[in-house]
Amino acid sequence: MGWMADETGLDKGPANHVALTPLSHLARAAAIWPDREALVYGTVRRSYSDYQARVSRLASALAARGVTPGDVVAPLLPNVPAQVEAGFGVPACGAVLNTINTRLDLETVQYILGHGGAKVLLVDSALIELAEEAAAVQKTPPLIIEVPDPVAGIEATGRHLTYEDLVAEGDPAFRWIMPEDEWESLALNYTSGTTGRPKGVVYHHRGAYLITFGTVVSWRMVLHPRLLTVVPLFHCNGWCHFWMMPLVGGTVVCLREVTAKGIFDAIADEGVTHFGGAPIVLNTLANAGDDERRPLPHVVEVYTAGAPPPAATLAKAEALGLNVTHCYGLTETYGHVVENVWQDKWDGSAPDERAALKARQGVAYPMMEGVGVFDADGSPVPLDGETQGEVGMRGNAVMKGYYRNPEATAEAFEGGWFRSGDIAVVHPDGYLQIKDRAKDIIISGGENVSSVEVEGVLMHHPAVDLCAVVAQPDEKWGEVPCAFVETRGEVTEEELIAFARERLAGFKTPKRVVFGELPKTSTGKIQKFELRNRAKDGA
């Protein structure tokens, strides 16, 4: 289909077919805007020329130390310039970028290093002991490169080669190793699954390249935006935003700690025009004290994803000068692939109606072939705003699959769509709205928390006979874990929370424990929907 009668000589070649990769964006930007500001962090100011040279040095130095195409390099870093530079420098030597969540517990970091097989670990000096412990148990421990942060007053320990010394080893004229096939792996991102063992989501160059174009369109961008890194760069590679900025000659402004003052200062002092973040960020800004606020010199475009922001929060955010766009996606889809496209006819809506419209997740991004909601038989649900089904996605920003897990990949792609595990309805205008999470994931402050993982930890306590963990609404974090527990011995709420805190990352630790018999079906299955209702009532 689609072929003419005689296609002789109409073949792909180097003149008419080049593998798509976000690396092209930085190479182009450095040629066009060599002196324009590309990367900012406190007193650190890098032009596009500087940015490209440092990326080249990093790629060269990694290659000289034995990193070959297909090897994994893992940054364990907050939102600092080294994290941004690694986003280009690691793939520029043909390697795969594996950003690791800085908030994870030791056991999970150990698992990710072992499963992903990182050859080099770039580590913030504040996290060096975690990295050393995690690396020590590996069969082939990764080379640790320490990244101090003078801007934040965090000095190197002196136990490892530093990032700046590594970069100094490299050649600024190093020729980047570009992908021969755009299906080659670009990044490996571990998602918090429902089993406690995270799955490794593999991105290809093509998807990252195309989502950068889609985001420029959907976020209504023009040349030279200034992006604040509020979204952690270990979350879907910062929703792929830093790969996008060279495309439009933009500036990445790094923010190590997400605080209201830090965001207000960046907008006022650095001219920030765009940032993304979980609804908790909007709450933080809306509830900031007078000593933290600064007048905003212009309207700032904000992407928010996760639990829909409450109407009151949206109203406060807009009053500050933030234009909020609600979007939705998963680690498996490079971040956001569904957007709430605002319609002109909604402009005059009453505040509550406006908030309800903005709370919907919306429609497919430009680079997606389709986003639908399907019933148990795989048929699309009617557009009535009531019939629920599972969200399915298809398009250029869907992962290659789960690393070293073909069974999970096949299950996720059954029927020719990526099955999200999220339950939604579709309104008559085609906008979808998430209603529940089929896999019981709790989204706390933008972090995914596996209820199964938390339950597994609590069940190790000798006094716990049975437990179930569900999301409890929280004004600050959106949702927090709430544990319902049946006991066989004496234990207090404080003791159980402390027990969990010793074994889990802070955001995964239950904030409330309720004792008593758990509601069950006739077959003994715990009725989590009933527990969710109880958690809401007790919030």
In short:
The protein has 539 residues and is α/β, with parallel strands linked by helices. The longest helix is centred in the N-terminal third of the chain and has 17 residues, at 48-64. Belongs to the ATP-dependent AMP-binding enzyme family.
Give the topology, please.
Blueprint (H helix, E strand, L loop, with lengths): L22 H10 L4 E5 L2 E4 H17 L7 E5 L4 H12 L3 E2 L8 H11 L1 E7 L3 H9 L6 E5 L13 E2 H7 L15 E7 L7 E6 H14 L7 E3 L7 H4 L1 H4 L6 E3 L6 H11 L3 E4 L1 H8 L13 E6 L5 H10 L1 E9 L4 E5 L11 H9 L3 E2 L3 E7 L14 E7 L5 E2 L3 H7 L5 E9 L5 E6 L3 E4 L2 E4 H8 L5 E11 L3 E10 L5 H9 L10 E4 L12 H11 L1
Parallel strand pairs: 1-11, 3-4, 3-5, 5-6, 6-7, 10-11, 10-12, 12-13, 13-14, 25-26
Antiparallel strand pairs: 1-2, 8-9, 9-19, 14-15, 15-16, 17-18, 18-20, 20-21, 22-23, 24-25
Pfam families: AMP-binding, AMP-binding_C
Subunit structure: Homodimer.
Catalytic activity: 3-(methylsulfanyl)propanoate + ATP + CoA = 3-(methylsulfanyl)propanoyl-CoA + AMP + diphosphate
